[in-house]
């Protein structure tokens, strides 16, 4: 599938590794940066989403959200990295109906509220099943600062570029659907978070106080991208979950 990533906002949290580990499949483990797991919300608007052989004007436009955790696993070729997506939501009924059927990734149906200018962006959504919602306000800035996970914009950009393979529970939860974002135009810009709320990260039953803290946010705009299905992660024989830290 081909598309244009009209806007992709990555809102990132540093999370206690033992909490993150309890939320990922057994064949995976949280990818750590200086002892922290990295999780967050991806708020993405896709345009011209269509089979690659078709022209862009026939493609769909949709607002989508994913709550995710950066993960790694030991495969036959060595260590691999990606994200585990616990839940996807979409404002598109096509995505909600076709996700997990015609293309990988089951989506819940949600209502989105988006307001944006050249500098300011507000994205909020609420799932129609009333279980998941989020609201984020950011403003573009000149410098990347304030993160305890990453020293600079280049380091943050590289971390998330290497985590472009996403895996989410397939219908019935007995396997994982895989989908990879590919682009030759990867570019992010820093933003300052004015407010961020999420029924996932603000839930004390899932994230006890102090175990999930807002760290930084990144913005992508007008990036052509393709999406490719992936098989479930292949785990090397004899491998077991371990505490492998991604060092700076």
Detailed description of the structure:
With about 250 residues, this protein is mainly beta. It has a single domain (about 1-240), classed as Acetoacetate decarboxylase-like (Beta Barrel), CATH 2.40.400. The protein has helices at about 15-20, 95-100, 155-160, and strands at about 1-15, 30, 30-35, 35-50, 60-75, 80-90, 110-115, 120-125, 135-140, 165-170, 175-180, 190-200, 210-230, 245. Strands 1, 2, 3, 4, 5, 6, 7, 8, 9, 10, 11, 12, 13 and 14 form a 14-stranded mixed beta sheet that branches. Strand 6 (about 80-90), helix 2 and strand 7 form a beta-alpha-beta unit.
How many E strands? Answer: 14
The average pLDDT value, as a whole number, equals 92
Rg over CA atoms: 17 Å
Q: Strand portion, in percent?
A: over 45%
Helix/strand order: EHEEEEEHEEEHEEEEE
CATH level-two architecture: Beta Barrel
């Amino acid at each position: 599938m081909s598309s244009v990533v009209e806007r992709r906002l990555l809102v990132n949290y540093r999370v206690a590794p033992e909490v993150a580990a309890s939320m990922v499949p057994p064949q995976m483990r949280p990818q750590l940066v200086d002892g922290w797991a990295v999780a967050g919300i991806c708020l993405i608007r896709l345009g011209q989403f269509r089979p690659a052989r078709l022209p862009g004007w026939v493609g769909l436009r949709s607002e989508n959200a994913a709550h995710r955790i950066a993960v790694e696993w030991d495969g036959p070729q060595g260590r691999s990295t990606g994200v585990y997506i616990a839940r996807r939501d979409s404002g598109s009924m096509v995505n909600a109906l076709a996700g997990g059927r015609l293309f990988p990734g089951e989506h819940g149906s949600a209502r989105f509220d988006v307001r944006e200018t050249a500098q300011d962006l507000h994205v909020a959504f609420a799932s129609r099943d009333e279980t998941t919602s989020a609201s984020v306000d950011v403003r573009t800035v000149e410098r990347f600062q304030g993160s305890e996970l990453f020293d600079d914009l280049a380091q943050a950009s590289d971390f998330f570029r290497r985590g472009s393979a996403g895996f989410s529970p397939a219908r019935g939860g007995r396997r994982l659907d895989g989908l990879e974002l590919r682009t030759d135009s990867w570019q992010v810009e820093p933003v300052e978070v004015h407010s961020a709320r999420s029924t996932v990260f603000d839930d004390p039953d899932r994230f006890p106080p102090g175990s999930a803290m807002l760290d930084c946010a990144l913005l992508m705009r007008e990036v052509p991208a393709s999406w490719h299905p992936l098989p479930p992660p292949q785990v090397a024989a004899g491998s077991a979950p371990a505490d492998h830290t991604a060092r700076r």
